[in-house]
Amino acid sequence: MRPGRHHVLQIGLVIVESDGTAVDRWSTLVRLRRPWHRVGPRHIHGITRKALRNATKPAAAFEELSRRLDGAIFTAHNASFDAAFVERAARRSHVRLHIERRLCTLDLSRRLDPDRRLTHGLADLCARYEVGLTEHHDALADATATAAVLPRLLSDLGITESTQLDDLYFPRRPVQV
Prior knowledge:
The protein is of the alpha+beta class. It has helices at residues 42-45, 49-52, 58-69, 79-92, 105-111, 122-128, 139-156, and strands at residues 10-16, 22-29, 74-76, 102-104.
């Protein structure tokens, strides 16, 4: 999948405090910008064109996402991929959404397994950490699972203070003077 070719169909967001307590959950389907756009692999995500007819318009969905992400650390499983998709989709809808700080649970999991002996898909992490994952590929279900796995990954990495996160943000960019 490519951000320039494919479309965001659903957004799921779970806001958690530093102790892992979920304080907000939000999800919305996102209407296709053009009715002839493809919905992609329905056998994976289960979203039909009919379900999207009365969905939230893209601009409204990305404005709400931008509002909810304000000041938060964007965390996702394969964060670069998800961030590229939502940033591009927001731009297409003329919404400013810039995701600066990102944590990637895929990257964190791989750091714990430098020899790549394990698999690192979200479902694999959920099984490893005994986190329930219902409706895999539903945006809110995946966000909920990611939020539950994150504190366990951070603990396994020895991260106990928020200041230790600075070296984990993705992508790692050089500091500009």
